Amino acid sequence: MEYQIVAYPDDRLKLISSPVEKIDEELIDIINEMFRIMYESGGCGLAGVQIGVMQRLFVMDINGKKYVMINPEILEKSSDCSLDEEGCLSLPGISAEVKRAKKVTVKYTDVDGK
User: Fold this and answer.
1) DSSP strand E in the chain: where?
2) CA torsion, points 33, 104, 85, 17, in degrees to nearest 10?
3) Closest CA to 95 of 103, 104, 86
4) Phi, psi of 88 (to 5 degrees)
């Protein structure tokens, strides 16, 4: 299947994604496609919904280390925050200062089911 960035004001961006039920070859193909699209678009993170995959799935690259988060769930976040300029691949050409917790604890499943 051919995937592309879903951009605002597409209504899919407002929907709640479903949990990933199983890790199989199809999901691995989607994950690989997400990384490809993210890198080609100059991003550092991409959620499934941003390519029209309505499943709880997120990929990111932090300093060359790739992460795949399946069914991510934020467990804890610090009260210390930072303010940084951010963009979003689904909001092309727009960036803004965003306040985020400096530390976040996330529970997720990786591609090996761990």
Assistant:
1) 45-47, 57-62, 65-77, 81-88, 91-101, 104-109
2) 40
3) 86
4) -145, 130
Alpha helices in 10-75 (DSSP H): 25-40
* pTM (predicted TM-score): 0.93
d(CA 20, CA 113): 11
Per-residue pLDDT tens over the stretch 48-97: 999 999 999 999 999 999 999 999 999 999 999 999 999 999 999 999 99
CA distance 102 to 79: 8
Residue labelled with tokens 């407002």: 14
Residue of 43, 93, 107, 64 lying closest to 51 (CA atoms): 43
